[in-house]
Amino acid sequence: MRALDCTTEAPCPPSRLRIALVTETFPPEVNGVAMTLERMVDGLVERGYDMQLVRPRQASDSTPAGAHGFDEVLVRGLKLPRYDGLRFGLPARSRLLREWSRRRPDLVHVATEGPLGWSAVTVANTLRVPVTSDFHTNFDRYSAHYGIGWLRRPVAAYLRRFHNRSATTYVPTAELVRSLGDQGYARVEAIGRGVDTALFDPLRRSEALRRDWGLAPDGLAVISVGRLAPEKNLGLVLRAFAAIREQRADARLILVGDGPLRDTLARTCPDAVLAGTRHREDLAAHYASSDLFLFPSQTETFGNVTLEAMASGVCTLAYGYAAAAETIRDLDNGAVVRCGDEDGFIERAIQLAVNDRLRAELGEAARRSAEGLSWGHVVDTFADALLRAWRRGGAAQPWPAATGAGGRAD
């Protein structure tokens, strides 16, 4: 276990700090938040922390609770609309109050902002257990892409209220620290993201896979990885690829992921390879076997796929915010354009598509950059942040136990 040092000014932590991590999503679900949390939980366990994971029981669960090497509390959940395979946790105030009164955690960390998360913050505040939170997803921005833009302001207000009930909110970029601070969020701290450079590696490039995609030996594989959903701005991927095809008839579009737009994309771009959801080595081979990664989303808090593409040695083009703003230097280790500049995005995509040497140099530089972004350093930073929150003690400002998002804690 990594030493948990203490000073005369602060209490010395227990020999095994017990942390209850509450989340609506966790593997086997496939998304960036689930993957990030798995890395964090595994890393904390490896460092000797006593972890409890509180999450909804997922339809895809195939292993019993506790089989992962840490304590799990599985609660009721419901299917998340328009997100097949994902569920959100129902309020569980009574269950958590019993669990945490019986075996009190030293700190509660709430990773998602649904009803389960609200219950967890309420119970932690009631029991005077220090509570921290994560801001992983711009749910308020998503509303405009699903025909409920009128909900953006109420959702934003709920998220702000939710996070201001915790002692500290952790976000993945310094840019998001500033943005949330301007919106009235208090006590926001940046903790970055890492990438598994052993898994995502240029050496996984597969000529057999490229042949399966229908590519000629020197053909151009343009890839997009992520959920096939409106918030990912995939229309710009299609427009950029159409412009590329006018210059490179040997180009092929590879869409990795699944979601509500799959059928629409198949009709709109019948020549595209719809690879579906891919996992681990298979996913890594899809990245490494590609030549140009396009990521025009503007709704990410980070975008783990950016680091995965870079680690795979793939030339990456993205808007200059979130992960790209933190890690990509334009035309040095990738390419970035100003957010919302669709014409600039398409022009840069063409520039990269027609210049094989430039694309290769940027991909090699991207790999070198990714090699310095280890998960070990990220987990150490997260562990230190949780320890500081434990030392400070207590919630930021306890709320009445009966108060909740709709007037009730449950």
From TrEMBL:
Keywords in alphabetical order: Transferase
Gene Ontology MF terms in the entry: glycosyltransferase activity
Domain Glycosyltransferase subfamily 4-like N-terminal positions: 30-198
One Pfam family hit: Glyco_transf_4
Domain Glycosyl transferase family: 207-368
Matches recorded under SUPFAM superfamilies: UDP-Glycosyltransferase/glycogen phosphorylase
Protein name: Glycosyltransferase
Lineage of source species: Bacteria, Pseudomonadati, Pseudomonadota, Betaproteobacteria, Rhodocyclales
